[in-house]
Amino acid sequence: MKRRFFFYGPLLAGAVPAAGFGSAASLRTLGYKSPNEKLNVAAIGSGGKGHSDIMGCATENIVALCDVDEKRAERAFKMYEKAPKYKDYRKMLDEQGRNIDAVIVATPDHMHASASIAAMERGKHVYCQKPLTRTVWEARMMMEAASKYKVATQMGNQGYSNEGTRQTAEIVWSGELGQVKEVHAWTDRPWWPQGTTEVPAETPVPASLEWDLWLGQAEKRPFTDGGMDFKSPYGGFYLPFNWRGFYDFGCGALGDMACHILGAPNLALKLGAPSSVECIKKEGVSKFQFPRQSVTKFEFPARGNMGPVTVYWYDGMKASPKIEGVPEGEWLGDLPNRPRPQGQGQQARPQPMREPAFNGMIGRVFNYETFKQLRETPDIRQASPNGSLFVGEKGMLTTGTYGETTRLIPAEKMMPEYRMPEPLLLRSPGHYRDWIRACKGGEPSCSNFSVAAPFVEWMLLGVIALRVEGKLEYDAAKMRFTNNNEANQYLKPRIRKGFEIKV
């Protein structure tokens, strides 16, 4: 592939790091591995999202599996019966290190950095689920480790591999929108409980779970499944999924979805670090969980030839936000789907209208004729509210959860005679294949830690803003809020002995 994506005059300056998208100047310095030779991959976190990440890398050799809950990881454990099984990733890395080339990390957020850095310091390539880390300091440590140990890395934000994300950047860089003044991004998450005010009574730890290892670096506390007083379609009080809503374990809806939905704005606008962040609305406040619903405002200074921009993040949404200037009835973000098929049983389930698969996941590239058919279809099923909107001096652009169905607003601007700008960015061969290729000495992956960590850092400032009141002024060079010492305590985690992080 031609490397025309690197620099395209002053317009593209700063769009990618000076060394390209890689953690190191050349991964080939480690010894080139033929693309036809399979990697030996281990997984830390093998149930839930870990299982789907393993499936994404199933073209390679899966040689070791780790999960603190053998029941949660049962599917993967059965699928790879011959692979050694562990509950403690430290033991796995010590005993199986010589057999491992690369590691998938798909634990809860609070253990991402501890597990990933333990792997990187042993020279293992790392794929780590979003939002990469729970704190800003950990994000910087992850980037430093990737650079020091010269390993191939990738964060699990699939949208950075998607065609529409690149189209978004190229449309913005073409000048189609003029200077972008605002970005609005929204999600229907959290689906899990947030804003809970009481911790239920202690209950027995399930026989399959090593609770102390699950807590990892976090402060010890009694286990509870919530008992009869706590009901959620996502399981018990903490597990298997509700940990996302807790300050000590997750990053709320912002951490879950912003790495996807804000990926296109981050790339297209070369956002860097904000000068300030503020939670301007929140409902359902808790001492130990994120709020049920919130709106967060980020202010970014001018960047090169791009002027200041304000980014608004909305979560807990029932519908897309109402933005001034958007024509009435215009669809924003994800596009609706066709109505439910007639009949009963399995065939009666909603069938999303899908275009060809892109980048190792199902994505949709905007097609005006398809859009027109949707508008003319009765009883259309509205999509869940997820997406983003760019507001420029000359026009608007919207894109979906993972950067799919990128289109100008109003959508009539995208009629067949419209021509996309000349492609400038390298296209991904697929989200997991992108990382696998990098591990074997090929092009660095598009969301490696030198790209992902600065993105995650500014997003995590919003996570902190949900915990403290008022506008927070941020000095990125010093990694410090200049006007709020309370907020500064959340930039770095308190880490329990045995799970220390050092590079």
Strand order of the largest sheet: 15-14-13-7-10-9-8-16-17
How far apart, in Å, are the first and last alpha carbons? 34 Å
Mean pLDDT: 89
CATH architecture of the largest domain: 2-Layer Sandwich
| CATH fold-level name of the largest domain | Dihydrodipicolinate Reductase, domain 2
What's the level 1 CATH class of the largest domain?
Alpha Beta
Structural class designation: alpha/beta
Poorly predicted residue ranges: 1-30, 344-362
What summary fits the major beta sheet?
9 strands, mixed
* Shape descriptor: globular
DSSP, total strands: 17
Percentage of β-strand residues? 15-25%
Helix content: 10-25%
Number of helical segments with 4 or more residues: 14
Number of domains: 2
Computed over alpha carbons, the radius of gyration is 22 Å
Question: What descriptors fit this protein?
Answer:
alpha/beta, Rossmann fold, six-stranded parallel sheet, globular
In brief:
Helix content is 24%, strand content 15%. It is built from 14 helices and 17 strands.
Describe this entry's structure for a reader:
The protein has 503 residues and is an alpha/beta fold. The chain has two domains: 23-158 and 430-452, Rossmann fold (3-Layer(aba) Sandwich), CATH 3.40.50.720; 161-192 and 251-414, Dihydrodipicolinate Reductase, domain 2, CATH 3.30.360. Helix content is 24%, strand content 15%. It is built from 14 helices and 17 strands. The protein has helices spanning 9-12, 49-56, 74-79, 89-96, 112-120, 136-149, 163-173, 211-215, 252-261, 263-269, 368-376, 431-439, 449-465, 485-488, and strands spanning 40-44, 61-66, 85-86, 102-105, 125-128, 153-155, 180-186, 276-283, 293-300, 309-315, 357-358, 361-362, 387-392, 396-399, 407-409, 472-475, 480-481. Strand 5 (125-128), helix 6 and strand 6 (153-155) form a beta-alpha-beta unit.
